[in-house]
Design brief:
Blueprint: H1 6-11, H2 18-24, E1 32-34, E2 40-42, H3 44-49, E3 57-63, H4 73-86, E4 91-95, H5 100-103, E5 112-113, E6 116-119, H6 121-124, H7 131-151, E7 158-163, E8 167-169, E9 179-181, E10 192-194, E11 196-198, H8 203-210, H9 214-223, E12 225-229, E13 234-236, H10 237-240, H11 243-250, E14 257-261, E15 266-269, H12 284-293, E16 296-300, H13 305-320, E17 326-331, H14 333-339, H15 352-370, E18 376-381, H16 388-400, E19 404-408, H17 410-413, H18 419-430, H19 446-456, E20 462-464, H20 467-481, E21 486-489, E22 509-518, E23 523-528, E24 547-548, E25 554-555
Parallel strand pairs: 3-16, 3-17, 4-15, 4-16, 8-11, 17-18, 18-19, 20-22, 21-23
Antiparallel strand pairs: 1-2, 2-14, 5-6, 6-14, 7-12, 9-10, 12-13, 14-15, 22-23, 24-25
Helix pairs in contact: 4-18, 7-8, 7-11, 9-11, 14-15, 15-16
Length: 558
């Protein structure tokens, strides 16, 4: 049976002018700054005018640990938004922007799939409205100003060995992980070792996504610790006097982007931190704006619930004062079979025993999300190869966990295929069952926060870290940063730090390799295992097959 590709479906979309989409939400045309006919930014003035309005209900879409079989978290987020609108609710979708790194690496696009997509798909997966370029430029302006300060006499007495601020670019490039800059003689400055991260791992990205407005943005940028003196005194971005110019570069990027689904429902696409190396949520300003404009807001957090949902709850909700009403955990029969030991090539064959064997991964995520006091429903994202017996096995397992699993066919049928999930979400959200609370209190010591996440979410036995790391955490506590939440950077493929370990492992160890202070964003990053903040390209990158066809259309991106 031949199916249309995502890009074929997207090209057939009957898009409405973005002004019409804005009008659905009560956004006047003068408050929309159009980028062409199908996307626009919402003005800061309009957003400020909403402050007195009542908030709608916030729904989180998360998932099991990703597998090569595919889960469809963004597809389900888009589908559920369409489904809620279909049953008469005013719903808004909030998702992240796509990074060029994985798009040209191995992941492909990030706008949903099938008949549950956000459009314009090609632009969203390429330059879109230029937000990532603005973040990259603002970040690297600070880098240039730090080196320039040192070159012109170093009035602040920065210790060149203790410059913490690395450069960024929005592309996977392993050659730039560790580099030496300022070679070539006196006129080029003082040589030192540094490196690049990918833009989505930038603290500037995290700051933009956690800021409430431009004033808050500039304050947070000023709070960035960029280096230390020889006496180990912190040097802030505001000491370099870069925060004002960085805010200017980010002025437009701070405004949420409004686009539409294939069914012409509104979607905010804004911000894009990775969940395996950053906090993995779309911007606070987009989410809060959507809550003022809709009865329901459907948003997603990156990768599995062990990373994305935990950070959504412990970082984004904590900092923004958000209280989610319900959560959806996306799973597929195929992924359950993979967790049960079936090879990707054999996923099309019925194997109920493997499904049952793989379900504990889903069970762990259900229990974890429930531990935050948020009611849970499981969305089984349907594939045509799924059999009734396999679906029944997943449903029976989820019922044993005290939750309900609902088969969803939004990929093939759009909103018509996800009505049951939409109705379930409405009943959960309106029941008032949510009693959300973060996993740990602000006052808990930093290392204990890391241990709490590792033991309660990952089910590890212990966290190991060198004395230097523990001392660094104690030093930050003494400096007044002890109240900050933890942002764990680790592999997305497993509850452990080993990407090959599937299922629901216990008794493992979480090694902390490095800790980084993100004082502006307001969290501590704990880098665990072999995770990289600058990914590399695979042996055969997606970029090899991306091209323009004879009609001038993009091929190979999706």
């Amino acid at each position: 049976m031949a199916f249309k590709t995502d890009i074929e479906i997207a090209r057939e979309a009957k898009k409405k002018n973005i002004m019409e989409i804005g009008a659905k939400l009560g956004i006047p045309s003068e408050s929309l700054l159009p980028y062409g006919h199908d996307k626009a930014k919402v003005s800061q003035e309009f957003i400020k005018s909403l402050s007195g309005k009542k908030d709608g209900k916030l729904i989180l879409v998360t998932a099991i640990n990703p597998t090569p079989a595919g889960e469809g978290k963004t597809t389900t987020t888009v589908g559920l938004g369409d489904g809620l609108n279909r049953i008469g609710k005013k719903a808004v979708i909030c998702i992240r922007e796509a990074s060029l790194g994985p798009n040209f690496g191995m992941k492909g696009g990030a706008a949903g799939g099938g008949y549950a997509q956000v459009v314009p798909m090609e632009e969203m997966n390429l330059h879109f409205t230029g937000d990532f370029h603005a973040i990259t430029s603002a970040h690297n302006l600070l880098s240039a100003m730090i080196d320039n300060h040192i070159y012109w006499g170093n009035e602040l007495d920065i210790d060149e060995r203790r410059v913490m601020w690395r450069r960024v670019m929005d592309m996977n490039d392993r050659a730039l992980r560790d580099i030496v800059v300022s070679l070539g003689g006196v006129s080029n400055g003082f040589p030192r070792q540094t490196g690049f991260d990918i833009t989505v791992a930038s603290e500037v990205m995290a700051i933009l996504c956690l800021s409430n407005d431009l004033e808050d943005l500039q304050k947070r940028l000023g709070d960035i610790v960029v280096a230390y003196t020889r006496a180990k005194k912190p040097i802030y971005c505001r000491d370099i006097k870069a925060d004002g110019a960085m805010t200017v570069l980010l002025k437009d990027a701070m405004q949420p982007n409004l686009v539409q689904t294939l069914e012409n429902n509104p979607a905010f696409v804004h911000g894009g931190p990775f969940a395996n190396i950053a906090h993995g949520c779309n911007s606070v300003i987009a989410t809060k704006t959507a809550l003022k404009l809709g009865e329901y807001v459907v948003t997603e957090a990156g990768f599995g619930a062990d990373l994305g949902a935990e950070k959504f709850f412990d970082i984004k909700c904590r900092k923004a004062g958000l209280k989610p009403a319900a959560a959806v955990i996306v799973a597929t029969v195929r992924a359950m079979k993979m967790n049960g030991g079936v090879a990707k090539a054999d996923l099309g064959t019925e194997n109920v025993d493997a499904v049952k064997k793989g379900c504990p991964n889903l069970g762990r995520h259900i229990a974890n999300v429930k531990s935050f006091g948020v009611p849970v429903v499981v969305a089984i994202n349907h594939f045509f190869s799924d059999t009734d017996a396999e679906v029944a096995a997943v449903k029976a397992f989820v019922a044993e966990q005290g939750a309900e699993a609902i088969l969803c066919k939004h990929w093939a049928n759009g909103s018509a295929g996800i009505e049951d999930l939409a109705r379930k979400i409405v009943s959960l959200a309106e029941s008032g069952a949510s009693n959300f609370a973060p996993l740990y209190p602000d006052e808990m010591p930093l290392f204990q926060k890391i241990e709490t996440i590792a033991k309660r979410i990952y089910h590890a036995d212990e966290v190991i870290a060198d004395k230097s790391i523990r001392d660094q955490l104690k030093g930050w506590e003494a400096a007044g940063y002890g109240h900050l939440p933890i942002c764990i950077a680790k592999t997305q493929y497993s509850f452990t730090t080993d990407p090959t370990v599937r299922g629901a492992p216990t008794g493992h160890t979480v090694p902390v390799r490095e800790v980084r202070l993100s004082a502006g964003a307001g969290f501590i990053v704990a880098i665990c295992g072999e995770i990289m903040t600058m990914p590399g390209l695979p042996k055969v990158p997606s970029a090899e097959v991306i091209r323009l066809n004879a009609d001038g259309n993009v091929e190979g991106l999706f």
